[in-house]
Each structure stands twice: as structure tokens, then as C-alpha cells.
Fold:
Amino acid sequence: MFYYRPVVEYAYADIISLRAHVTLGLMREIHRWGAHAMVIAIWLHMLRVFLTGSYKPPREFNWGVGVILLVLTLLLSFTGYLLPWDQLAIWAITVGSNMARAHPFVGHEGPGASLLAIGGVPLIHAGSDARFLLLGGTSVGPGALMRFYVLHCIFIPLVASVLIAVHFWRIRKDGGISGPL
Amino acid sequence: MVTMNFYNLLASDEGGIASAIKAKLNAWSDPKYFVTATVVLLILALITYRRWTKPRNAALLGLFFLAFYVWSATDRNFIKIIAKPDNVPITIMLVATAVVTWLAFRQAAINDERMERGEPLIESGADDKVLVWPDLVYTELICLILCSVVLVVWAILLKAPLEPAANPTNIPNPSKAPWYFLGLQELLVYFDPWIAGVLLPLLIIQGLVVLPYIDKNPRGNGYYSFKERKFVISVFMFGWVIMWIVLIVLGTFLRGPNWNIFGPYEIWDPHRLAALLNVNVSDIFWVVLPSWLDMSWWKPGLPTESFMGIPAYLIRESPGWILLGFYFAVLPGLLAVTFFKKIYKDIGFIRYAIFWSLMSWMFLVPIKMVLRWGFNLKYFLAQTEWFFNV
Structure:
């Protein structure tokens, strides 16, 4: 975060110089593999919680919190995927964020979007739909890089840390980690 | 000469038995066989969960899978896919998922046998209270150190990928989402983007959240057991193993350029043509069926005139509306009074309605996939006029 600038001109070059100038640097590797490992770990965590029936009352609320945390983890990984600004990044995010323009009503290619019009002027078009909100543009460009950076480093971590605190607190309140009740 | 034959036997690149096996496996990795086979295997695994989870049997299965995987990795096309740095986690996920699933079902088998004999559960012994400090914190510290070691070793062995700088004019073929979303990307082949990319993911999240409120079975709370929760676990394992893991494998290992299906040992040839002529249910009903029946009063052709105020496009799609109406509304009702009578009685109307609206969508996905692979079905219902294609 100190050496990386989330603008199209510098992002890729900063990653390159991180690789070139840091002797025996492993932070980027650990960050990337740790992110993948996190995705795998929470899936398996969910599998274990399901198979031990630990979503049943009184733990049903904490299961719901866990599902939201699962989604947030995937979103964290997804937003981080764009930041190196290489070919892998922009095309994976292009494929993923294309879903937003197919969203019913608020995506300009989604069903019902054409119904939202005032006097024949469409309210939802490529420059005003859900994908535009996500990317800050009509394609994965400078706006998307900045938005994903803020989402990745500030917004999602904030929400996730609050929910993680709730998650751990509820474990204690609901009778401890999945044991028979 | 002996060494030569031995080499031919093992080397998977060319010649000998190896290439014959590979040609067979390439042919079988057509999803209609591959996914069907995994479904059959899952059902078998659930039925025989007490036998295959015995440590010796599980170890043999695991060794067989690892040997097969390592042998596959000697193939130059397969290694190209799995050695991509961002695909390495998939291999780790497959192994980790297999181990965790085995561990869970092993403990479920032991618990089920104990309950049959009237003995206490494995988890019952864990009642003895231990202190957070030092017992828990000590364990956590060890886990923290072990995880750090694994990550550092992984990071030393494998560099994080960095491709050429982003170039909006150079579109890679195939363009793939991050690996954990490849199951969802696969759905785009079969459904319109608003269903595959918005509705189905939201239904997955919704289904997970409402799960504790629908599953009113009070047994099996907080310990491994399969016998006490057979139905719920079977449905969940179908969703998790087939609709998530198998589709990720399909999307990563078998989807190549132009999103065509390639065998795991095949070259990704971007010029390979896949002639596809997908047909809708309405085409089958109005064109294929009459020309096949060859009757004088029913000429093949889509309806073009409205009838009694019903527009022609609705008449055209009426077979699809009836089919889906039956599937989404009538079938759950029929099941409620026959096959799922007990479940319906236990959980009541509202829970049952939510439960089946989720189940209907979950099973519509594999049903449509099979019909696409087997019969080139495009849409059950192609109401393009209303932006409603299913």
C-alpha cells in the first residue's frame, strides 16, 4: 500500500518494481496464495459447519453472518484480482463485472431496464447502470481500478471486520464451537 | 528394448497403452458422460459411506487418485493447465476437499454406529472444559506458525503470476473469471446472463441463509451424523460437489478457446469448430414434431397469427409456459401429497414453498445442462419479447 499507486499509468509498473527492487521479496506471493488459501479454507469451514449440523438453532443467526462473510471473502479476493493491472486482471474482472449490466432493471442489458424511462428517455443506459456504478466507467478502466482499490483496502475490510467480531462473539454466546447441544 | 517398452507404458505423451487410455479419457470428458459419472459416484459414495470411509479403503482411493493425477501431469497439455500459478489452488482445493469430506463422513459413520449401539458420540468426550489461556491460545499459536510456514514455502516455490500489462484491445481466448467463479461462469452457457449471473448466485446465497429456518429436523445438531439427516445432507452435497466443485473443474480443465469443450489431454486448438444448432422447445413443438408426425391437418411452422386476443408470440411459447408451469408450480404440489408428504407435514406450507422454489432452480440447472449436451436444447421458454428466456 505504500509503494503501489492505483492509477492506470503506475499500477503495473509499481508491481514490476516491487518484484525487481525487493531482494528475496515474498510479500506479493504470500498475499496472493494466502488469498486463494482463504477462499478454500472458508469453503471447507462451511462444509464442516454444515455436516456437523452446527447451523441449527441456536446457531442459525451466526450461520447467516457466516454466509455474508463468505460472500465478502469472495468479493475481497475478486476486487484484489484487478489491482496488478495485468492481462489476467482486467479480463477476469471484465468477465465478472459483465454480470452487472445484465441485472434486472438496473443493468442496461437486463430485463425491465427499458421500462424505466421518462418521456421516452431511458433512465438506465450504459452510462448510468449498475455496472457503471461498479466500474466508474463503461469498461474496466481507470475508474474501476480506483474503485476496486478502495473497496479492497477500506470498504470491504471494514464491513468484514465488524462481522467477524460479531461471528466470534456469537460463537461464545451460542454455546461454543460446534459441539453437541 | 525392455526399457523402451517400459517407457512407452508410462510415458503419457505418445504411443502405447497410455495414449489409448488418454484418447478414451478425452472422449469420456464430454460433460454428458463426465458430469453424469460424478453424479453416479456421489450417489454411490453417499450410499456406501460406512465402507469407503474406513481408513484403509479411503487411503487406497486417495492413493489411486493421486497416482492418476501425477500420471496425468506427465501429459504436456494437462500440465499446461494445472501448472498455471493461479490454477495451483484448484489442485490444493481438490485434495483438501477430498480429505475434509472423508474426515466428516468417517466421523459420521462412527457416530452412527455408536448411536445404533447406544454408545456416546465422539464429540461427547469434548465436554471437559479447557482454559482459553493457555490451552486455546497455545493451539492457535501453533496453527498460526504452521500456516505461515506453509505460505512462505508455497511463496518461495511459486511466483505470483504477472502477465503483460493490461491491454483493452487484446482479448485473451478463452477469457476466464477467477477460478472460484468458474462454476458460475459455466452457467452462462446455459442461461441468459441475468439468470446465470444475478438470479442463480443470489438464490445460492439466499438458500444458504434460509437453510436453518427450513430444516426443522432437531437431530444431528452439533455433531457428525449422516443417518439422522440423510435427505438434507444428500441435497447439500449434490449442490456443493456437483454444482460447485465439478463445474469449477469443468470450467478450468475442460473449457478451452471459444469456450469449447476439450479433453484434459487435448491441445487447445483455437480453430476447432463446434457446429451447434441449438433449438427451443417451441421449435421442437411447432416444427420438428409436426414434420415428424407428417399429418395433413398440422403443418410445420411457428404460429404467426393471434388467436382470441392472445398474441402469436404467446401461442408460440405456450409449450414452454405449460412445461415450466408444471415444473415450478404443479410438480411441487404433487410431490407434497406423495413423495414428500412427511416433509410437507413437518415443515408446513410456507417453508415447503420456499424450499421447493430453491430446489426447482437448483435442479433446473443440471436438467438443462443434460438436455443441452444431449439434445442441443436452447430454451424451454424463449419469450424474447418479454426478455424472459429460461
Observations:
- DSSP finds 15 helices and two strands in chain B.
- Chain B touches chain A through 73 residues (CB under 8 Å).
- The CA atoms of residues 332 and 351 of chain B lie 12 Å apart.
